[in-house]
Amino acid sequence: MQETRMMLRNIGKINPISSMEYAKLGGYSSLRLALSFPNGIVGMLKDSGLRGRGGAGFPVGLKWAFVRDTEAPQKYIICNADEGEPGTNKDRILIMGNPHAVLEGMAIAGRAVGASKGYIYVRAEYPYVRNLLEKAIADAEEHNFLGKGILGSDFDFYIEIRMGAGAYICGEETALMQSIEGQRGEPRFKPPFPAQKGLFGMPTVVNNVETFANVPLVLSLGSENFKTIGAPKTSGTKLFTLSGNICRPGVYEFQTGITIRELFEEVGGGCPNGKKLQAIQTGGASGAIISPDLLDTPMDIESCAAVGATFGAGDLMFIDEDQDLIEVCASLAGFFVDESCGKCTPCREGNKRLLELIMKFRHHTATPKDIDTINDLASTMMDASLCGLGQTSPTPIVTAVKNFPEVFERAMARRDEK
Length: 418
Fold this sequence. Notes:
- By secondary structure, this protein is of the alpha/beta class.
- 45% of the residues lie in helices and 13% in strands.
- The radius of gyration is 22 Å and the shape is globular.
- The protein starts with 18 loop residues before the first helix and ends with a helix.
């Protein structure tokens, strides 16, 4: 199946560090355009229908408008390259192969909202990504695509890199800002939101790597043309990460709206060794675990939500018939116990309790009452946790219990056999 390569189009064709090679293939032309009409950038993004690619799917133009319309002596642009989600490496692929698309998108954001400073927050496990980014930024400054008086204009924009310390929680935007400021990476209470009071107390745009790489495409294609690509309410292409029990795992770029079946069968080649597909986890470690009956679901935000799946950052983990689904849930629950920052009680204690409950099923000591406890606890965590980690970490367990009741019933039946 042929990919629709837009963000990945330059990979393998140019030296990723070279801004001039990127420019020869049309790169930085959108930045030139943005320099000439800064007041129209936000409107184009709104009209394009571009939504954030980090997981939440918030409209990009609307987020930028909040920052643009907030008066402040300094504003900031942050690129979230933390990418701590298990089974996801799309941002690494994009940065390593096409970093100047991300830098161009950040500079356009700066021009649109009136920011002169940007930060790229890179996860600690990506030291080689930092090295490449440092060289790409230096090259862009040398050729006046970044720095002072960009391309002969009155616009200055500088980008610095900040490394995380391997904390999953720092993928959450307020915890990320805390980390950049040199504080413990824990989420802040909202409101105020980053658009009004973000990094160092100033209005801040925080977007994902893939989101920034889409921005030059919107300006070069025009908002109306961009809107025709992909699903109606999730415009453009998406980087999908296929992992788990699949013949051809990897990162692929397709228009949004491609079905899970197409990604599984035509792109990924199905399960290895002719095994039967048992389940799919969509949207990353905190995503829903759904049945193969939903293989024909289009991968866009609205279609996934309509069937109880998670679009997230476009991750799909395939689970074949040989895998123990309860073991999968236990592994995910253990991950969130380790990665919870501990700031709020629902997440800190709730994830531990969820793991304990799942282990009862694993050891065949669970009762039907434990199912009710899981659902009650999950509801409390989703409603009362401070940030997205605690609000979404129960999702895989709750959806597994709902969509695969026979698995949990068998585990309880084995208790009766003892």
